[in-house]
Write a structure and sequence with these properties.
CATH class of the domain at 11-50 and 87-166: Alpha Beta
Cofactor: FMN
CATH architecture of the domain at 11-50 and 87-166: 3-Layer(aba) Sandwich
InterPro entries: NAD(P)H_nitroreductase, Nitroreductase, Nitroreductase-like, YdjA-like
Largest sheet: 5 strands, antiparallel
Strand content: 15-25%
Distance between the termini: 39 Å
Number of helices: 6
CATH superfamily of the domain at 11-50 and 87-166: NADH Oxidase
Helix content: 25-40%
Number of strands: 5
CATH topology of the domain at 11-50 and 87-166: NADH Oxidase
Keywords: Flavoprotein, FMN, NAD, NADP, Oxidoreductase
Order of helices and strands: HEHEHHEHEHE
Radius of gyration: 18 Å
Structural class: alpha+beta
Domain Nitroreductase: 9-163
Pfam family, one: Nitroreductase
Length: 185
């Protein structure tokens, strides 16, 4: 698949199954990730690959964080939170590693990590896999951050759920005209 085809055909797939990207495909996806725009070459990202039984451990972290955020969470809510990482055979946690820098504000470092995440999603698609980028309260939870070894200044920008689509979602053709304007001063 060429680059333009990958860009204009990628879509999110929530229903994922095996196989997940293998070792060689994961390496290619990470090579794509580190080509993201990066002001001053800070490399403001970290990627944590979670597969197999480690997904259950990640689910336990999610559950404990929910308990702390919401002491009134029901067992059904806790079970749902615990099961989130099991929705795909692979989860890649993308963390923006934020540092104080005189030329590169925090927002640029977060955007760079987000661009790296998008490159992973595009590379996965180009390699024949499917996925969905998920966020939510879990991304901004200090307990989840700490459990994943991130510093207090780091920011999780997303959980990339990857595998093979159970069924390909159909997206309607969309005109870009409503999102684009030409500014002439």
């Amino acid at each position: 698949m060429d680059a333009i085809e990958a860009l204009v055909t990628r879509k999110s797939s929530a229903k994922l199954t095996t196989p997940a990207p293998g070792k060689e495909d994961l390496k290619i996806m990470m090579q794509a990730a580190v080509r993201a725009p990066d002001h001053c070459r800070l490399r403001p990202w970290r990627f944590i690959v979670v597969e197999g039984d480690a997904r259950e451990k990640l689910g336990g972290i999610f559950e404990e964080a929910l308990k702390a955020r919401d002491p009134d969470a029901t067992e059904a809510m806790l079970q749902k939170e615990r099961g989130k990482p099991l929705r795909a055979p692979m989860v890649i946690v993308v963390i923006a590693r934020i540092e104080e820098h005189p030329k590169v504000p925090k927002v640029e470092q977060i955007l760079s990590a987000g661009a790296a995440a998008q490159n992973i999603m595009l590379a996965a698609h180009a390699l024949g896999y499917a996925g969905i980028w998920r966020t939510g309260k879990t991304c901004f939870d200090p307990k989840v951050n700490a459990a994943l070894g991130a510093s207090e200044t780091d920011q999780i920008v997303g959980f990339l759920y990857l595998g093979t689509a159970e069924r390909m979602p159909i997206l309607p053709d969309e005109s870009v005209d409503e999102y684009v304007e030409i500014w002439d001063g």
